[in-house]
Write a structure and sequence with these properties.
The chain has about 210 residues and is mostly helical. The chain has helices at about 15, 20-30, 50-60, 70-75, 90-95, 110-115, 130-145, 145-155, 175-190, 205-210; strands spanning about 65, 85.
Length: about 210
């Protein structure tokens, strides 16, 4: 949840969830005697299963960009296709560019990557912002997009785009090309072993006796 600066008691998503910061802290600490199922929430609030299904439907067949998305996928119960994932925490080229001062092993932090590659020392200086995290991850991906896409295709294979199938455009052949293709097909059919021999028609008995 993102807190509005002019009112620390009001969350930007309160109009969607119906839960303010005080109620959220009470629910998280267990001090609120009213269970969340019995609270008077707005009609826009979806059940957890429905919300997870809608999010997974939005994430299908798209390239997902982020930083260390393992927990996010775990909460969604999702096994993301590796060819459609761009996680800045696991791309080796970004980690190789870090200095020893900013990187001491393990997974690099988004703050260190942004400071090294984007020259953004102000990331996470104040309150945590998921919008700034997403923006930094997308900017990092754009820096090495060509190399990263080639790396992902070689390691995990080409992505399969099946969300919006498109019909192939019909190819219009010229008359000469069509005649040449038809001639080649006829010649291939006449070769032995390609197709069964054509059965000859039997002549009528009356005509055969007359001859």
């Amino acid at each position: 949840m993102a807190t509005m600066s002019y009112n620390p008691q009001f969350h930007a998503w309160q109009r969607y969830t119906g839960i303010d910061s005080v109620t959220f802290e009470a629910i998280r600490s267990g001090a609120d005697p009213i269970p969340i199922e019995q609270m008077d929430l707005p009609k826009l609030v979806l059940p957890t299963a429905v919300a997870v299904a809608k999010v997974n439907a939005l994430l299908d067949h798209v390239v997902i960009i982020g930083h260390d998305l393992r927990r996010d996928f775990h909460l969604l119960g999702r096994n993301q296709c590796r060819s459609l994932l761009r996680d800045t925490a696991f791309y080796p080229l970004l980690a190789l560019g870090l200095s020893a001062k900013r990187f001491s092993g393990g997974l690099p932090s988004l703050r260190a990557l942004a400071a090294e590659w984007l020259e953004d020392e102000k990331l996470h200086k104040g309150a945590h912002s998921s919008v700034e995290d997403a923006r930094a991850a997308v900017l990092l991906y754009r820096l090495v997009k060509q190399e990263w896409d080639s790396f992902a295709e070689k390691k995990f294979g080409a992505p399969v785009w099946t969300a919006f199938p498109r019909r192939p455009r019909p190819t219009v052949m010229s008359r000469s090309a069509a005649r040449l293709r038809l001639r080649r097909l006829r010649n291939a059919a006449r070769r032995p072993g390609r197709l069964p021999p054509r059965r000859r028609r039997k002549r009528p008995a009356s005509r055969a006796s007359a001859e």
